[in-house]
Design goal:
Length: 457
């Protein structure tokens, strides 16, 4: 019997800690009155959370049929071998995941027992941890999923492969079925590096390019949900697809309008938000007149390359405000996100690349010379020196849960200005799920007016 207290909202992304969701098989000790009362309380919490989710679905806050809870966290430490890189205080300030005695190695620590994130179907598991403190270097998988992941890596001609070793663990899925999972570690076939010796770039975008064998991030194409009824903008990262999508999303108030209106009309809406059918706007879009600059973005005017990029940069703050205030904060946006498969509604497969973006212009921080502020219109707050984006590459997915391989520029973490390493030992794996457990939800607090998309090679 599985008892789980569903979490509908994530904790702070910087100090992310999963709520300990419960599952139990009653023993003699569990039959004591106080133990029975505790289980009944947990069941009531679980039922309450599900009622809230059902009510949100009825009110349109969560699309009907969408999975709102994925992986669960084991209620006890599971025996195995769980190696992670661990943060330590850095001399002079900041913290680092680099070994104190060998700068070419990560600061590793292995636990023989640990709490795990376990995929709902029991086919994947990884150490549960706060990303700011421990970052997993290994994960556990069924043999079948291990083969699927490697098949996808081979199909992309990736230099990365996975190795299944003889270390295994036993877990129980949400229905009480026991599964044996095997430890999975990475290997680079072009440099003969395996396990914790593997070195990938420090920058997240370069990790994604390396793993997918893509020349540069600009060549990634946006990927929406299969068979989506919304004809959203398509194209590559280099063709400003992120900002083009951000200007497209506020065009209408409800999903039926996206389904029914013509694509040219929606493109012509620009900053008009809801008046895309206007013949005047369509005429201006085709003519590319200066009078339309405040309504039409550069792409719709036939611009490309640097000209398109410059036009988008001029309007960055209006794009961010329009996307957040006139889309994210409006009723009905959840249905549209779900239909497109963006933000927390992404359901990735092996080989996909996830990209979360800051949307909006910046201004100097008057209290911190040299710093910038970006206003988050979603929350009404300012963020100092936000990163423009973060990439994560999906290694494998099972059900609604998925595991990524990642790294990121560590200057802020280490409180210095070092150049990002081309070969860095601090790769890590992480498990995400649907909704509140998603890559988008875990990271969005650090990215003002956050927009997360799925990309493919």
């Amino acid at each position: 019997m599985k008892i789980r207290s569903d979490r509908l909202k994530p904790a702070s992304p910087e100090e992310y800690q999963s709520v300990r969701q419960r599952k139990a098989t009653p023993t003699f000790a569990d039959r004591r009155p106080e133990a029975v009362q505790q289980r009944q309380l947990i069941q009531m919490m679980q039922q309450s959370s599900r009622v809230v989710a059902q009510r949100q679905q009825m009110q349109g806050q969560i699309p009907q049929g969408e999975v709102v809870q994925g992986y669960f966290v084991s209620d006890h430490r599971i025996s195995g071998e769980f190696t992670s890189q661990v943060a330590r205080d850095k001399r002079g300030g900041g913290k680092t995941f680099i070994d104190a005695h060998d700068a070419s190695k990560a600061n590793l620590a292995t636990r023989k027992k640990s709490f795990l994130r376990i995929a709902t179907n029991g086919n994947l598991a990884i150490e549960d941890s706060a990303k700011a403190e421990r970052q997993a270097k290994v994960y556990y998988s069924t043999i079948g999923l291990y083969k699927i992941a490697n098949k996808k890596l081979r199909s992309m001609n990736s230099p990365l492969r996975l190795i299944r070793n003889n270390k295994s663990i036993h877990v129980t899925d949400e229905n009480g079925k026991k599964k044996q999972l095997y430890q999975i570690v990475p290997t680079l076939i072009n440099r003969n590096e395996t396990g914790t010796n593997v070195k990938l770039p420090e920058n997240c975008n370069e990790v994604a390019c390396t793993v997918t064998n893509t020349f540069n991030q600009g060549r990634f194409n946006i990927k929406y949900k299969d068979n989506s009824t919304i004809q959203a903008p398509t194209g590559t990262v280099s063709n400003e697809i992120i900002k083009r999508l951000a200007t497209f999303l506020p065009a209408y108030r409800d999903i039926s309008q996206y389904n029914q209106k013509g694509y040219l009309d929606r493109l012509a809406s620009g900053f008009g938000y809801g008046d895309a059918q206007s013949p005047t706007k369509i005429t201006r879009a085709r003519a590319g007149t200066h009078a339309a600059n405040d309504e039409i973005t550069g792409f719709q005017m036939g611009l490309a390359g640097n000209a398109l990029r410059n036009r988008m940069n001029v309007h960055s703050n209006r794009i961010g405000e329009g996307y957040a205030a006139r889309f994210l904060n409006q009723a009905g946006s959840t249905d549209i996100e779900n239909e497109l498969g963006i933000n927390e509604h992404i359901k990735p497969t092996a080989g996909d690349v996830l990209m979360i973006n800051t949307i909006g212009g910046d201004r100097p921080d008057p209290h911190h010379p040299g710093s910038i502020l970006v206003h988050d219109h979603r929350t009404g707050t300012d963020t100092r020196n936000p990163a423009p984006y973060h990439f994560a590459t999906v290694i494998i997915a099972s059900g609604s849960d998925y595991i990524t391989i990642e790294n990121y520029a560590r200057q802020n973490e280490e409180a210095d200005n070092h150049g990002s390493a081309v070969l860095d030992p601090r790769y890590f794996f992480r498990m995400y799920g649907p909704g509140s457990q998603s890559f988008h939800e875990e990271n969005q607090a650090r990215y003002p007016n956050a927009l997360t998309v799925r990309l493919e090679k």
